[in-house]
Design brief:
By secondary structure, the chain is of the alpha/beta class. It contains eleven helices and twelve strands. Helix 1 packs parallel to helix 11 and helix 5 crosses helix 7. The longest helix is centred in the C-terminal third of the chain and has 18 residues. The chain is elongated.
Length: 318
Amino acid sequence: MITLMYSNFAPSAEHVRRLQKLAGSGRVAVAASEDSALTCAPSTQIVLGHRWLRQLLPHAPGLRWVQTSAAGYDQLPWAELARRGITLTRNPMNSASIANHAVALAWALLRRLPDALRAQYAGRWGAPFAMLPQPRTALVLGLGAIGMQVSRLLRGLGLHVRGTSNSGSAAQREACDEFVDAGRWRDALLDTDILVLALPLNETTRGCIGPRELAALPAHAVLVNIARDGLVDRTALLDALRSGRIGGAGLDALDPIPAADDPLWITPNLLITPKVSAYHPGMQQEFEAFAELQTQRFLSGAPLEALVDLADTGQACA
């Protein structure tokens, strides 16, 4: 049984029909609630999505493969999947959108577009804004599919890009101009103009950008976090922005989301987007097509794409 548990959209009828054609009539179930997911659990061998995965896992003895609809897997019960020998594959289809969003945040801050919008809304044509220097270097923490795509985009814009990860695969090294060993990335902060965080959140990466790291950055540096909020010490970041210690920060996730009257919302040179970096009009269609191809591969015994190595969960911020 294939059980669909998508988080951001309901599967299209055409998608369900195509999966039924692959798996057989009656072999595809759409879980629209936690209760329906648990009803499907005893006969589930494949999960597409992950919405009620934690709840389903204890009741799904025959589960063999999970195709998450997320780019990352740090918020999934990956340790339990590893213990049970269940295959996990991630969603690589949104890497381009997320990387484009990261670059857009960086350049919006560099060119002071939030200031321009405030002046526009006020009907004010003023003197040129105090722009930040043209960036020459970037450091990308985390060279998964998203981090590698960010690196390629920044290199295409003429920046010298350093990147770091624990594994340091050939593809990761090729994606950047300079590969930095995982234990030495802080040394590269001193001359980093744009710092991009593309890491999962775990015990080694939580709070990896704190007072020490922010103090090491040049005063004109821009930080962009398109990953998890917990990677950054929020208090230290807001202090650095309010004091002018760094040039700006772009965040695509806040957890928890601050109250409407929280001073965070009016912090200078802070640009926040509401966790939208992955979103684009073709998001659902692209993932459904990918999930169908993955299902075809799995059922035919062919290798799966975007396989997560659950035996290697170490990251670059130790």
